[in-house]
Amino acid sequence: MNNYLLFFNDLKQCKNIDEVKNLFNKYKISRRDRMKYPDIEFNISADEINELKKKEIITKENIFNINLHGNKSLTTLEKILYSMLWKQGDLKKEKHIISGILGIDTDRVVFNQFGKHLQNKENIILDQHVLRSFIFYKTKNVEKIIKDKHYLKYSDEYKKWIENNELFRSNKNIIDELLMGFGKKIKRNIQYIT
User: For the whole model, what pTM was predicted?
Assistant: First the structure.
């Protein structure tokens, strides 16, 4: 456990991004698979969403039009991506990402925050593993399952923690990757920590 507690002391003492990157090796934290999760470099604007609404691809409720499945004018890429959402049972989850792009908060914090990130890269990405890391930092407890109550309690504080540190604020992607990896690691090793 002490080794895990030292992680945040080391992170807070980092003076540059190279020192942050060294923590991956020091704590044996896996890097993100860039083939599976490459950095998203594009943004999506509110104007782009509104254009899709004009074309009736997205409804005023910020979900795909129920009749989209029969739209013959979709591009092949659009058809493939729509089919993947359908196959995974993820249709209607787009509402939270689209709402995030439009700056509308929803109850699905992770998807909503991701939408905010797609709209403006200054917004952080927030997932269960990152939040698990932050909760561990604050409480010294490992939450195996991150629930809505955790997002409600810690999300804003986490965002402020990132924004109040110049190194973290300027390197959000690396901090996100590091904390995501650390959160996965402590979840896997929970029996050794508690």
Answer: 0.86
